[in-house]
């Protein structure tokens, strides 16, 4: 979606942590008029330096009139989307999106997105290292490392962006479409943010909401909740399991990780080559 434009638009970024700062910098570079609002009264020198590139800072709270007057609002992951200061903006029909949604609209390469309640960071970093070792142009970020917004100027058609995505980042996505999505597991978490287990699961399921048959969804077949959610996906599915007996998918068999298909199997990796601690 590289034709998306914010040139001349009044964009408010809410939250001056890592993702918000990255979003503000990206938006200024793309020609937007940017206001960065922050609940705290004091921010780091790096945040204050954003004024040098034209970002207007509003500290000490998120003002209703500032948000209502925006053409677009970008919420940092740490800022809950349900709060009274956003109501007037919603009534005006102002789009409210996450930083990961914003950045993905300008990615020129492919996105591999990884979510789950546990294991996201390890999987993301490990996959990035594997791609780099294989000679790929790979960037690692999202909820771990650098914000996706900071990678956009380096993005090329050959690049693979390996991004960890949390429920906080996914819940405000609208067009986010990974080339490959990985759904590791699902356990009840973050109820203080999402309210109930169903809302949390729905936010996680946004990872594959826009995928099509030409995309891939990698699913942990040992997790019944992940399997239940994945049935709604239009993507081509690749299941993996440590315990479940799969006729089609990636499993552990004797001393190797193999890919089973309807006509046989293909050895992939000997277990002796896996040096990650614990049972994986």
Strand order of the largest sheet: 7-8-6-9-10-11-12-13-14
The total of helices stands at 10
Stretches where pLDDT is under 50 for at least 5 consecutive residues are none
Q: Could you say which structural class the secondary elements and strand pairing correspond to? A: alpha/beta
Fraction of residues in H or I helices: 25-40%
Q: Average the pLDDT over all residues and give the rounded result.
A: 93
In CATH, the homologous superfamily of the largest domain goes by the name: Mur-like, catalytic domain
C-alpha Rg (nearest Å): 20 Å
Instruction: Give the C-level CATH assignment of the largest domain.
Output: Alpha Beta
What is the count of distinct domains? 2
Task: Output the helix-strand order.
Answer: EHEHEHEHEHEHEEHEHHEHEEEE
From the N-terminal CA to the C-terminal CA, the straight-line distance is 36 Å
Number of strands: 14
- Approximate strand percentage: 25-35%
- Proper CATH architecture of the largest domain: 3-Layer(aba) Sandwich
CATH overall fold name of the largest domain: UDP-N-acetylmuramoyl-L-alanine:D-glutamate ligase
């Amino acid at each position: 979606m590289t034709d998306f434009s914010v040139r001349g638009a009044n964009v408010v970024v809410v939250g001056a942590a890592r993702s918000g700062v990255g979003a503000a910098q990206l938006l200024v570079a793309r020609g937007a008029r940017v206001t960065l609002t922050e609940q705290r009264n004091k921010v780091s020198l790096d945040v204050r330096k954003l004024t040098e590139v034209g970002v207007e800072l509003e500290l000490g709270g998120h003002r209703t009139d500032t948000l209502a007057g925006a053409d677009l609002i970008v919420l940092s992951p740490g800022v809950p989307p349900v709060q009274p200061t956003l109501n007037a903006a919603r009534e005006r029909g102002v789009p409210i999106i996450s930083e990961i949604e914003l950045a993905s609209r300008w990615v020129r390469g492919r996105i591999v997105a990884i979510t789950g309640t546990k294991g996201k960071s390890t999987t993301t970093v490990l996959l990035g290292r594997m791609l780099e070792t294989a000679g790929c142009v790979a960037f690692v970020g999202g909820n771990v490392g650098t914000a996706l917004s900071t990678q956009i100027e380096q993005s090329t058609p050959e690049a693979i962006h390996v991004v960890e995505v949390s429920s906080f980042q996914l819940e405000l996505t609208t067009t986010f479409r990974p080339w490959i999505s990985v759904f590791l597991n699902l356990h009840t978490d973050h109820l203080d943010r999402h309210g109930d287990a169903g809302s949390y699961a729905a936010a996680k399921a946004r990872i594959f909401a826009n995928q099509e048959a030409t995309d891939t969804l990698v699913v942990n077949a040992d997790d019944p909740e992940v399997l239940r959610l994945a049935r709604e996906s239009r993507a081509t599915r690749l299941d993996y399991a440590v315990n479940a007996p799969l006729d089609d998918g990636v499993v552990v068999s004797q001393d190797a990780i193999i890919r089973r298909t309807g006509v046989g199997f293909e050895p992939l990796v000997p277990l002796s080559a896996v040096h990650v601690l614990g049972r994986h």
